[in-house]
Amino acid sequence: MPDNNSYLGNNLLKGLGVQHKFKKKEIEEYIKCKNDVIYFLENYVKIVHVDKGLVPFKMYPFQIELANAITENRNVIVKTGRQVGKTTTTIGWLLHYILFNEEKTVGILANKAITAREILGRIQTSYQHLPKFLQQGLREWNKGSMELENGSKVILISTI
What we know:
Elements: E1 6-7, E2 10-14, H1 24-35, H2 37-44, E3 46-49, E4 53-56, H3 61-72, H4 86-100, E5 105-110, H5 113-128, E6 138-141, E7 145-148, E8 153-158
Helix pairs in contact: 1-2, 3-4, 4-5
C-alpha cells in the first residue's frame, strides 16, 4: 500500500518535500558517501547483472580507476575494450554526482533515443534501490528525464 512519503505511490521512491529523520549512523554514512564515490558505489548502488538480476555493484580495479579518473579530471578519454563495465561505472558516478551536488544537469547523449532511455533507466533502477536517507525527493521521474529536489536532473538527447 502506498504511503504519503512516496513518489506517485512508488514506495521505493522518496516524494518531494519528504523530511527524513536521520539517525546518527545514517548521517555518518551520508557523509562517507558524499566524500567517497567508491564507497558509495560499492556499499549502496545496485546494478542489474545479466545472469543474477539485481546485485550490489562490486567494482573491478579498472572500474575504480575509471571512477577516480572521472572524479579528478574534467575530461577523460578511455581506451579499452567493449563490455568491460564503462557504462555501468559511469552510470554509478553520475548517480553520485546528481545526488550530492545541487543544480547540476546531466545530458545523456546517444545516437538513438532508445539507447539514451536505456541508460537513464539504469540510473533510475540504481536510484530506486538506494535507502531513503540517500535519496533526494523527486520533482520528475519518467522515461525521458528525472529531476531531484536538489535541482539536479538528468535529461536525454538523441542525435536521431
